[in-house]
Amino acid sequence: MNKVYVLLMAGVLAASCSKKEVEMPQEGKDLIEIVTNVAPQTRVPNLEQDGSGNFVQGDVLSVFVSGNMNTIHTTYTLGTTSMTWSGLKLAGDVSEVTFSACYPQQELGSDGTFEFNTYSAEYKDLLLSEAQKVTVGTPKPVNLSFNHAMHLLNVNFTSDGYYSAEELKTLVTTCKAKASCVVDAASGRIKETKPGVESFIAEGAAAAFYLVPQSTSDVILSVKINQLTKEYSLKTLLEDLGTPQETLQGGKKITLTLKLCKDKIIVESGSIGAWGDQATVDGEVVIG
User: Distance between CA 147 and CA 250 in Å, rounded?
Assistant: First the structure.
């Protein structure tokens, strides 16, 4: 797994959940060394063929420092900024803190949380680094391991020959699902999923939807090609495949292959697992 080493300087941080751009790096024992690594299949600007990758100079993240004090939020740009213990201005009785982070950068609310909406976000693959305990003043690197917070639903389409390749390009897939979640910055975890539903739309023979964790019964897929339209719940579809799933979990993905026939749609195959398939199921299910 590729790693990128980043040194960061925290500027003067104000009251709770405060945020400001950090200053230029300085040398010395006060420096906090941050080591970041990105899980395979993470979509960042620099990707290898197998989907693994690393952050590159210019990427902007949010770092959260917490403990028995209010959460400190600082934004930094990789490769150009650094962080120091003195810059955090911790109270003298604070001996241990936690570091968590997210990519892309987020605006933190006064309650120490932020909302992420996959429908409106420009970069929909939210990466979270869960809280890591760190001894104040340690010279050891702070390790931030980023993982996917969203669930990835892939839907691919083939034809039994009735529909041409050109017709498949006109296919429209609509995914109705909950779209936003609340993240607790201090823990680096999703706190709750919000009830609002959006319609995610994709055209063509392949569709990919980044979804917040939610019940599979809340996810409704609609497929339209020419005069044929079919709608079904993801929960029922997975049950018919013999792989029932009650919830969509962050960091995992479902991939379905649907075969389009003259007057029906057949589920040709599917896989469920981490982003890097771990389990595969095969079979056919007639929809409608």
Answer: 9
> What is residue 145's DSSP assignment?
E
Question: Which ranges in the chain belong to alpha helices (H)?
Answer: 85-88, 165-169, 234-240
Distance CA 61, CA 38 (A): 13
| 157, 170 contact by CB (below 8 A) | no
The token pair at 67 is 């403990």
Q: Using 50, 70 and 90 to split pLDDT, how confident is the model at 240?
A: confident
* pLDDT tens-digit readout, 185-222: 999 999 999 999 999 999 999 999 999 999 999 999 99
Tokens 């150009």 locate to 80
Q: In the numeric block, which tokens belong to residue 179?
A: 């779209």
> Could you state, in order of their start, the residue ranges of all structural domains in the chain?
3-148, 151-287
Nearest residue to 79 (alpha-carbon basis) of 60, 64, 63: 60
In the chain, what percentage of residues exceed pLDDT 90? 48
**CATH for the stretch 151-287:** 2.60.40.2630
Closest CA to 80 of 140, 132, 6, 29: 6
The 3-state DSSP class for residue 39 equals: coil
119's tokens: 């429908």
